[in-house]
Design brief:
This protein has 105 residues and is mostly helical. The longest helix has 46 residues.
């Protein structure tokens, strides 16, 4: 019974991790989109002579940081899916004597 409870807890934990990281990624992607718009606006202002080039660099640094965080989040989602797959018993090899004789090749 405790083994089953532990297995269910692992599956639930993996599912929660996937869901939370997917939510985080959605927010990060919104941040990337906003940062891209900001870079565009700052570059326009720079071309018009309204801001110095340091503002352009700061805006680009922000977008690169957001893109980096989004890439990390995608990696965490993949790792969480792997944990879910393992928690569900994926990759587990069955013993030869566990397969009924009628199902053996």
């Amino acid at each position: 019974e405790s083994t089953v409870i532990k297995a269910v807890a692992e599956v639930e934990s993996a599912l929660v991790s996937v869901a939370e990281e997917r939510d985080r990624l959605a927010k990060l992607e919104t941040a990337v989109t906003s940062a891209q718009k900001t870079v565009s606006l700052v570059k326009d202002n720079y071309r018009e002579g309204l801001v110095d080039f340091q503002r352009v660099l700061d805006a680009e640094r922000t977008i690169f940081a957001a893109e980096d965080e989004a890439a990390v989040s995608r990696g965490l989602i993949a790792a969480n899916y792997i944990a879910l797959f393992k928690a569900l018993g994926g990759g587990t090899k069955m013993r030869a004597d566990a397969v009924p004789a009628k199902d053996k090749p």
